[in-house]
Amino acid sequence: MGSIAPPQHPLGPGVVLPPKTEEKVEKKVDWRNLPCPVPFEEIQREALMSLKPELFEGLRFDFTKGLNQKFSLSHSVFMGSMEVPSQSSDTIKVPTAHYEFGANFLDPKLMLVGRVMTDGRLNARVKCDLTDNLTMKVNAQLTNEPHYSQGMFNFDYKGSDFRTQFQIGNNAFYGANYIQSVAPNLSLGSEVFWLGHQRKSGLGFAARYGTDKMVATGQVATTGVLAFSYVQKVSEKVSLASDFMYNHMTRDVTSSFGYDYMLRQCRLRGKIDSNGVVSSFLEERLNMGVNFILSAEIDHGKKDYKFGFGMTVGE
Amino acid sequence: MASKAASKGKGKSGKGSKGAENRSASKCVKVWSTWAMKKAKVVAHYGFIPLIILIGMNSEPKPQLAQLLSPV
């Protein structure tokens, strides 16, 4: 007769039972087929996407022209103030204007992105799938001034329920990280890095718990940084995110809370910070491929007000 | 005694010259690798964007040269 087998112990050899037709459909965990976790550097991606849009001050105009499916050129103009890091608490702003030319080649197996500015600075990114599971990424900023260029090679290996990455950078930087799915919703990872020239090394651990409706992450590192984030997807169009960061070396504590409205014609992101910074970023779709951008950042603590507007044409 | 001192002196100078050879070999490697990295950086700096454009213009469907240069 159609007798249903007695429910297996959840920690036993995993067997996925077919969903029962009762109201409560309980899916048994298949411990042998856990999903692949997100890459270690993207462990906080939902929180970063919602809380850290690219705020700017001044005018920004980006034009992307596609020549065919895979190849496109981009022209980008920026006129405004850029902040120069200063020792004192005052912000020093330098008015700058630059034009940036870029070329992108996007293939499923090979991605090449290059951007060059009028002062000769080149920003290059290469991503190449060497095999199905092994990917090589190169990221470089090359300048005309000597000793200011930077480059980083990453080798990523993706397993069935884990990912691992090895990094080599200039200034004798070596890093590695590893992340593993330990439950359908939970993944744990760790990273280690070594800076040759300064003889510094660090170790860090991270955890991510995510469901369809929420994502919570935590990170702790021997560099003295502790970071937590929580993102709740309230509906298809609205997400709320919050973030907490503590730096033991500089005794810096920051916490922020923000929202992300993804509507049909626009995307609005806003956030408020414990440092007294209120910021907002609006991308409005005027027409197919034409976006209007407004950016605002008000720092009540330092009395620094930044407003920017711009337009993006092309995909 | 004089011969012992002489042999000691020779032994030391012998080791010294071998050590100098090893040091200069590793120094050579370092100097050449630094030279190679410098040349590679210049090549990457000037050649990366032309490389992307070359690969892109040869991908299917082939775009026209006019499309590359015109602003529309």
Question: Please, could you describe this protein's structure?
Answer:
The complex is a heterodimer of chains A (315) and B (72). Helices cover 2% and strands 59% of the residues of chain A. Chain A is mostly beta strands and 315 residues long. Chain A has a 19-stranded mixed barrel. In chain A, strand 6 (134-142) and strand 7 form a beta hairpin. Chain B has 72 residues and is mainly α. Chain B has a domain at 47-72. Helix content of chain B is 85%, strand content 0%. Chain B contains two helices and no strands. Chain B has helices spanning 2-57, 65-69. The A-B interface holds A 65, 67-71, 73, 101, 103-105, 107, 112-114, 116, 120, 122, 124, 140, 142, 144, 149 and B 41, 44-45, 48-49, 51-53, 55-57, 59-63, 67-68, 71-72.
Describe the structure in brief:
In chain A, 2% of the residues lie in helices and 59% in strands.
Key descriptive features of the protein:
heterodimer, A: 315 residues, mainly beta, Porin, 19-stranded mixed β-barrel, 1 helix, 2% helix, B: 72 residues, mainly alpha, 0% strand, rod-shaped, mitochondrion outer membrane (chain B)
Biggest beta-sheet profile of chain A: 19 strands, mixed, barrel
Query: Overall pLDDT of chain B, averaged?
Result: 78
| Series of secondary-structure elements of chain A, N-terminal to C-terminal | HEEEEEEEEEEEEEEEEEEE
Q: Report the span from N to C terminus of chain B.
A: 92 Å
Beta-strand percent range of chain A? over 45%
- List unreliable stretches of 5+ residues of chain A: none
Number of separate domains of chain A: 1
The structure class of chain A reads: mainly beta
The residue fraction in helices of chain B comes out at over 70%
Count of DSSP-assigned helices of chain A: 1
Q: Which shape of chain B, going by the Cα principal axes?
A: rod-shaped
First CA to last CA of chain A: what distance?
A: 59 Å
- The H-and-E topology of chain B, N to C, reads as HH
Please work out how many helical segments of chain B DSSP would assign.
2
Number of strands of chain A: 19
Largest interface, counted by CB within 8 Å of the partner chain's CB: A-B, 23 and 20 residues
